[in-house]
Every structure is written in structure tokens, then in C-alpha cells.
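residues and backbone:
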Amino acid sequence: MHGRQITLPFNRQNEIISLAQNPEYSKTIRTYFENLVNEARNNITKKQQQYKARYDLHRQELVLKINDLVLIKTRNIRNKFDIRYEGPFKIIKQLGHKTFIVQHVKKLTLTRQVTMDVIVPLVDRWNLI
């Protein structure tokens, strides 16, 4: 057709494509994947630091000492007018940075191990009288 030889799909093709095999190919791929893994690891740690900074932006660190009075949030399913906090409890021991053992002020046999997320400090409000 039009001065060219017709090439059909089932005709044998000449090998005009040759792929040169790089002897350093495995090393190149290995360094490439190592770079990808390192970049992903760096991105994850960077995002974790950003999330922590954003979370800590409007949080104040509670400083609780032994013998401080606190209230404990109730964890059960409650209705609208059910109590939200139990207590007062007194801190008797600090186990970790955010873990405490508390004891009820009136029921001395009632002790619990709680973390900072369920503790509400009980403060005296002098200016409301």
C-alpha cells in the first residue's frame, strides 16, 4: 500500500528493540527503595510532630500532687441527668507520668487506678461566696 510493505499483526517482526542490561541495576534499585523508605519514615515522624504540636496547642498540663482532691469521670452509658463525675477522690500514689491511684474520701475501701484523661481537679472557689 502506497509503496510500503504491508505489516500484519501475525507476521514475524524484526527485533529492533534491544534492552541493555545494567550490571548495577540491583544496586540502583536497592538504593532507590532505601531512599523511598527513608523519605516515608521522615514524613511520618514530621506529621506526628505536627499532630502533637496541634493537639498540645490548647492543652494545659495538669500538675497533680499526692493528697490532691479530684473527681473521676464516669465511663458507663448515662442519660441526660445522670451524674458525670464521681468523687471526691484523693490521690494516694502516682504510678507514672499520667497514671494515679486514687482513694474515695468517704469510702476508704474504694480505690482505683486512673489516668489523666478521666481526672478533673477539684478546686475551691473562694470568690463565689
